[in-house]
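FORM 7B - TANDEM STRUCTURE REPORT

SECTION 1: FIRST PROTEIN
SEQUENCE AND TOKENS:
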Amino acid sequence: MTASTTRRTTAARSRIAAVGAIAVAGALILTGCGDQTDKASTATPSGKANAAPLFGKLPKKIQDAGVIKVGTDATYAPMEFTEGGKIVGVDPGIAEALGKQLGVTFKFESGTFDTLIGSMQTGRSDVVMSSLTDTKARQEGLDEKGAKTGAGVDFVDYFSASTGILVKKGNPEGIKTLDDLCGKKVAVQRGTTYEQSAKDQSEKCKTAGKGEISIESFPTDAEAQTRVKAGGAVADLNDSPVAAYIAQTAGGGNDFEAIANPTDAGLFGIAVDKKNTELRDALKAALDAIIKDGTYKAALDKWNAGSGAVTEAKINAGS
């Protein structure tokens, strides 16, 4: 092979390589003209694909952050409480399963219960998940008197619970139903539906010609429990799984008894800003998915809360 033949062969190879490069570039350009929306919805900020089945349903802001910020009051075992410096319980367990479907992390931050809904308006949280009962008043942003207090929210309902009546061990007052609280002092956590339940029951007592209920409201349910344990109140009203858990664990099971009132079961919901319908619908789809694959039930069973399981996700099904 002569030198000129070698040069011609090299030049030919260069031309072939150049044509190939142009062809590849053209193919990339054509590929880039495809469905950009789909590609953006399945990629993280680093450009890596997110294989989670429902990642594409999330708002772009959440996709980019990779995190859903959750407002909670982590003082409500077994639903949400702090253990070893970490927020654990039924709600964080459900959230972890939801996160696997959505491809993001649920980051819980504890705050005072009656400020949680407002935290979404300030941007401190994206959702509230804190054993929050889905009520029409909360959906519309109303207080117990029907006055507007702020923006309403939508709920993705994920758990069912009834009123739990927590009394001292031995039940010295013989409390069996809410009617037995007439004329007595009750402790509750401020801002909860059970504070309103106590007020409603007090009116019922008054109408029946019995003594009204004296209600003491505290920032946390733990303080309400302490009041009952000290004998300052005959009962603490909270959610049935919470009352049962406290009765089983407090003082080695020697401090309290729990009485369930299953006739007034209500729904807990993940609260979402009404304007954030994309996030709401993504959460609903994820909840349906974990109900179907069994990870939802596993999260409940870990805390003996299976009796509160729902069979499907619903939006604003509370009353």
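SECTION 2: SECOND PROTEIN
SEQUENCE AND TOKENS:
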Amino acid sequence: MAKKIVAGSAKASRRRARKRASTQLGRRREEFNFRGCTLEELQAMPLEELLELVTARARRSITRGLTEEHRKLLKQIVDEPTAVHKTHRREMLVFPQMVGTTVAIHNGKEYKEVLIQPEMVGHYLGEFALTRRFERHAGPGVGATRSSKFIPLK
């Protein structure tokens, strides 16, 4: 029988053990908690109680009333949670009943598919489909500034 050779010092083995332990802790995820309420409690909660938990801006949107398009989208999402729902309603709030569904949000050019997660409750759909794309700029080229005159062409 061959003997297993362990390379490294005691310090290295302790470091490996710490790394193993930290990755195991990293995999464990805390249960979702929105201002002291679990997702199940949020989904069972009436709209009046939910109003007390959300931010002032979201509270104002809800108290002014949902438009017909918002009610229609919410009803579609609750009725068919597995389907992908396309919408232009970027100002629609994410309600707890929408968690777990996929919504395709229009960003002005195309639809961005977004899986609604518990952390998104109380935010607007438009926050998750950005309308502007960050363009990464390269270095200065020939003719860009006076200093670039002296950059060799080769």
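SECTION 3: OBSERVATIONS ON SECOND PROTEIN
The mean pLDDT is 83.
Strands lie at 84-87, 102-106, 111-115.

SECTION 4: SIGNATURE
Preparer initials: ____
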